[in-house]
Amino acid sequence: MHNKVVYHAMKAFSAFGLPVLRFNFRGTGLSQGTHDHGHGEQDDVRAALNWLDTEFHRPILFAGFSFGAQVGMHACCGDARVAGLIALGLPVRVAGRDTKYGFLPQCSAPKLFLSGDHDQFAPRDLLTAVFELAPDPKRMVWIAGADHFFQDTAESPAAKFKLMQTEMRAWLRETFALAEADKSKS
């Protein structure tokens, strides 16, 4: 919840005046429960969707980072309340094992896949194959010189959070015709 990628993603949504919910999965931080290898964590995402729907009665835009992207996309694809999905650093190979995304062909909501071109958990060929599973509308953006955490690489020594936010905001503007909030009024 307090990860830099999650924080900067929240700022991208906040630029449009959108309500944002960040939460820890079961067993993380001070959250109750124990890690359930993605199964119970999908229920955590669904509980968050239920709360957002009850609280705001608006279409939901989901963004998740790494494990949160993997679990969240699985839980959100096919949920009519979710208008769009952003997968930040979607892992496709961890500890020598490939992650399967067999649910993606049924995911008709607009999707943005954002990954560093040096993401150690998302080799370009494997993430591209996962991206190809998803139907349109979809967009893939590779952040040059960024690793899994959108940090710098030796070839490009600077964090890439601003680039990540810029791409998220452009996609939100183009896909949902959103206008950024006027900061002078706040």
Verbal overview:
This protein is 35% helix and 16% strand. By secondary structure, it is an alpha/beta fold. The chain has a four-stranded parallel β-sheet with strand order 1-2-5-6, sandwiched between helices. The chain has a two-stranded antiparallel sheet with strand order 3-4. α1 runs parallel beside α5 (161-176) and α2 crosses α3 (67-76). The mean pLDDT is 91.
Assign the CATH architecture. Answer: 3-Layer(aba) Sandwich
Lateral arrangement of strands in the main beta sheet: 1-2-5-6
Mean pLDDT equals: 91
Structural class: alpha/beta
List how many beta strands DSSP finds: 6
Total of DSSP H or I helical runs spanning 4+ residues? 5
Q: What's the CATH class label?
A: Alpha Beta
Number of domains: 1
User: CATH H level: which superfamily?
Assistant: Alpha/Beta hydrolase fold, catalytic domain
How does the major sheet shape up? Answer: 4 strands, parallel
> What is the H/E order?
HHEHEEEEHEH
Categorize the overall geometry.
globular
CATH topology: Rossmann fold
Tell me what portion of residues adopts beta-strand conformation: 15-25%
Query: Low-confidence spans: pLDDT under 50, at least 5 residues?
Result: none
Helix percent reads 25-40%
Terminal residue distance: 25 Å
From the alpha carbons, calculate the radius of gyration and give it in angstroms: 16 Å
